[in-house]
Write a structure and sequence with these properties.
The protein is α/β, with parallel strands linked by helices and about 325 residues long. The chain has 2 domains: about 10-160, no CATH class; about 160-325, no CATH class. Helices cover about 50% and strands about 10% of the residues.
């Protein structure tokens, strides 16, 4: 049986810090529009922008806030506070604003969030932009995102074509698998086949061990094992890859494609070929397009978004080719 890529035709909702989407809502009224780096691909998603500090009623412009006495997690436990530059405690307001933003994301059906790191509210690994101090991460809102297991993307990575490609292919797989129901061991095996090549790239030792575990499982163990399998795979999909791993994976799958389909894609090069990350990203996108058109599973990117207009155009092209050959 030949496997084909999983095609999503409905747009995915993605949460994003409003200041990273061009909203002038930072404490000083400034912003950064990271989505402009995506070009037309920006239209492939439904964006759900939120700002915990604005939702807290702190306004723009405002005194900047900072965590005092601990992390964002400790703010929720009552062990730390949020203060502004003037020393006013705004803990209650920040908690309320963060909770309201989570509710907005839930109404948007967004389980993915692009965050502004360095923020005491949205930050995950930094809560200050100062080079000499990392603050007390995670932020107040960031700690909620971690607790509720959102797929988290730093907004700065959208400005790198290769890093964004890596995040995008993983978020698509994450979204699909989060909503993909499994009812039998057969379905679990089939799902693992679709995702295993990507998992092997991200963490080969773990993926090989998972393969052996699945091979040894009895059908009666499905109900007990499925939740563990789901959590572990989703956790792995959150981890970024590296340029070296990505280029090696691209070449491996392209080599298989050439053998399987008997076709070449001139734009794709071996890992030893010297090129920049922008060129590598273009090669990956070309391989994705080729996989969709030829109904081939590109294991490095098993879940691909194409709106119904583009899918219709592909089908019409295929029909025209068949008619021409006849």
């Amino acid at each position: 049986m030949e496997h084909m890529p999983i095609i999503l035709t409905e747009k995915i909702s993605i949460g994003i810090s409003l200041c990273a989407m061009g909203g002038p809502v930072r404490y000083n009224g400034k912003e950064i529009d990271v989505l402009s780096s995506l070009g037309r691909e920006k239209q492939d998603f439904i964006w759900c922008p939120v700002c915990p500090e604005c939702q807290a009623g702190l306004g723009v412009t405002r005194d900047p806030v900072h965590l005092s006495g601990g992390t964002g997690e400790q703010v929720w436990s009552g062990e730390a506070e949020v203060k502004n530059r003037a020393g006013r405690i705004v803990t209650k307001e920040m908690k309320q604003g963060s909770l309201e933003c989570i509710e907005v994301l839930k109404r948007c059906n967004a389980n993915i969030f692009i965050y502004m790191d360095g923020s005491p509210s949205c930050g995950v690994y930094k809560t200050t932009l100062k080079n000499t101090k990392r603050g007390n991460p995670p932020g107040v809102f960031g700690s909620l995102l971690l607790e509720q297991r959102y797929f988290l993307i730093p907004c700065s990575d959208l400005q790198s074509p290769l890093k964004w490609w890596d995040w995008r292919r993983r978020l698509l797989a994450f979204h699909w698998f989060s909503h993909h129901q499994l009812t039998s061991m057969k379905e679990l095996y089939e799902t693992w086949y679709m995702l295993k090549f990507l998992c092997q790239e991200l963490e080969n030792t773990w993926a090989r061990a998972m393969g052996r575990t699945l091979a040894a499982l009895d059908k009666s163990e499905f109900s007990q094992f499925e939740p563990t399998f789901r959590i572990q795979v989703l956790d792995l999909l959150r981890r970024p890859s590296t340029p070296a791993r990505i280029t090696n994976s691209l070449w491996k799958h392209y080599s298989h494609y050439r053998k399987k389909k008997g076709k070449k894609v001139e734009e794709i090069h071996s890992p030893e070929f010297k090129r920049n990350v922008t060129t590598i990203a273009k090669e990956l996108l070309k391989m994705e397009r080729t996989a969709v058109e030829d109904e081939y599973l590109f294991g490095a990117s098993p879940v691909i978004y194409r709106d119904w207009h583009r899918m219709k155009a592909i089908e019409e092209k295929k029909l025209a080719s068949i008619e021409h050959n006849q």
